[in-house]
């Protein structure tokens, strides 16, 4: 009977140990579950926060540069590029290209016939005209250079005047005298307005200038003598 009592105590001790182990196991299980739940909760929160930021970035309003571009485009629509058909006060000169307010063109410049809208065709015509004018300017300058070479290599033009005492002459040599002499010796017409010469009241040799072109000046020699 004593052996039977020892056997029951061993059974009871084993049961208590098993129950204790089960409590420890469930404690660890619950702790692990809590940790896992916390981890999932944190991960979910991080995911939704990141997703939310991505969505917010995708629906951001246009940046400042885009806003300025839109504003510039709107402003451009309110102006017109025009060419003046005549001088307009302080606005500009005939043929000048300008950007003006659409309302100013519509209500004043266009009705008064003072300007017209610049179109691609008009720009092309203007460019062709500009090229024609430049070609003509070049031709005129080259002709002036050739004429200057002739004047400077022909030698001195003789100018005869009635003499007075010593080297003095009666009267003076004028621009018209030079024009007449050139016509007589070279058969070329020259406008007296382009003749520049010093005051000549005595016999001797002088230098006169012919302004053949804004960029071309011929120097000619005048030999003044008394008859």
Automatic annotation (TrEMBL):
InterPro entries: Ribosomal_bL9 (IPR000244), Ribosomal_bL9/RNase_H1_N (IPR009027), Ribosomal_bL9_bac/chp (IPR020594), Ribosomal_bL9_C (IPR020069), Ribosomal_bL9_C_sf (IPR036791), Ribosomal_bL9_N (IPR020070), Ribosomal_bL9_N_sf (IPR036935). Its main location: plastid. Residues 123-150 form a coiled coil. GO terms for molecular function: rRNA binding; structural constituent of ribosome. Keywords: Chloroplast, Coiled coil, Plastid, Ribonucleoprotein, Ribosomal protein, RNA-binding, rRNA-binding, Transit peptide. One of its GO terms (biological process) is translation. PROSITE patterns: RIBOSOMAL_L9. Binds to the 23S rRNA. This is Large ribosomal subunit protein bL9c.
């Amino acid at each position: 009977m004593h052996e039977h009592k020892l056997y029951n105590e061993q059974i009871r001790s084993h049961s208590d140990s098993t129950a204790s182990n089960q409590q420890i196991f469930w404690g660890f299980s619950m702790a692990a579950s809590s940790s896992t739940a916390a981890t999932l909760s944190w991960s979910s929160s991080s995911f939704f926060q990141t997703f939310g930021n991505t969505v917010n970035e995708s629906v951001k309003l246009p940046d400042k540069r885009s806003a300025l571009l839109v504003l510039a485009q709107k402003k451009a629509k309110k102006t017109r590029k025009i060419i003046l058909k005549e001088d307009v006060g302080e606005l500009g000169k005939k043929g000048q290209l300008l950007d003006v307010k659409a309302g100013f063109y519509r209500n004043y410049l266009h009705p008064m016939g003072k300007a017209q809208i610049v179109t691609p065709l008009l720009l092309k015509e203007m460019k062709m005209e500009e090229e024609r004018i430049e070609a003509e300017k070049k031709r005129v300058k080259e002709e002036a250079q050739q004429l200057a070479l002739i004047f400077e290599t022909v030698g001195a033009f003789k100018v005869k005047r009635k003499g007075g005492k010593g080297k003095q002459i009666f009267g003076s040599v004028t621009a018209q005298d030079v024009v007449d002499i050139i016509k007589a010796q070279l058969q070329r017409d020259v406008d007296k307005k382009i003749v520049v010469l010093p005051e000549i009241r005595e016999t001797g040799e002088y230098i006169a200038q012919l302004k053949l072109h804004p960029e071309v000046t011929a120097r000619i020699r005048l030999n003044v003598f008394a008859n």
